[in-house]
Write a structure and sequence with these properties.
four-stranded parallel β-sheet; about 20% strand; alpha/beta; three-stranded antiparallel β-sheet; 10 strands
Length: about 210
């Protein structure tokens, strides 16, 4: 099984392209609308409903599943695919945006993000390594590197520092990732600054994603 992304058609006049992403649970045609199943379920939709609308891949959330019901419980039940009764591809995000959205309930450091649960107020430390291991336990086909999401209002210097932190975290995620048949994607940051986004592309690609 090829775990690659292939471009099958492109249009240079408008920079559009069609592609196929091959995963352990099937192919995903891109561009694609990906239904959001934050807590391992798409709200108001059954798996049969999703099949009927021809959904190809579902998004689940590392942060929320870590807090409830817990990634180890999902793993014991056979991973997200069995837990959700979904036999097609699944992508999990790293939880980076969710901890960012906690505002004053979180503190960012080189190690990771210390945050207070929105559920019960308990404290947790989410690191690049833990975010990777959680996603390995969940068993998604595509997982994302843990990154810092800078505020839209952040100044250039902050976004630049944040980008470098995201790059260092990405390298740690790659070192921590061990699950075969699961694709780890790097994340591009840089805010609204074209030069920083270009730098992020170069830095993330240099890690070897």
């Amino acid at each position: 099984m090829s775990e690659t992304f292939s471009v099958i058609h492109s249009d240079s006049s408008c920079k559009a392209r069609l592609g196929v992403l091959n995963t352990a649970h099937g192919a995903v045609e891109t561009p694609i609308f990906m239904p959001v199943g934050t807590n391992a379920t798409v709200k108001a939709m059954t798996p049969e409903n999703l099949e009927a609308v021809k959904a190809q891949i579902i998004l689940a959330n590392t942060y929320h599943l870590y807090l409830r019901p817990g990634h180890r419980l999902v793993e014991q039940m056979g991973g997200l695919h069995r837990f959700m009764n979904w036999d097609k591809p699944i992508l999990t995000d790293s939880g980076g945006f969710q901890v960012f959205s906690l505002g004053e309930l979180r503190k960012i450091s080189e190690e990771g993000v210390r945050f207070q649960s929105h559920l019960d107020g308990s404290y947790h430390m989410l690191t690049p390594e833990l975010a990777t291991h959680i996603q390995e336990a969940l068993g998604a086909d595509v997982i994302m590197c843990f990154d810092e999401c800078p505020p839209a209002t952040a100044d250039y210097q902050y976004v630049s520092r944040s980008l470098d932190l995201t790059t260092r975290w990405a390298a740690r995620c790659k070192d921590a990732h061990t699950r075969a048949g699961q694709q780890l994607f790097g994340i591009i940051q840089g805010g609204m600054h074209f030069d920083l986004r270009a730098r992020s592309v170069n830095d993330i690609c240099a890690i070897g994603f």
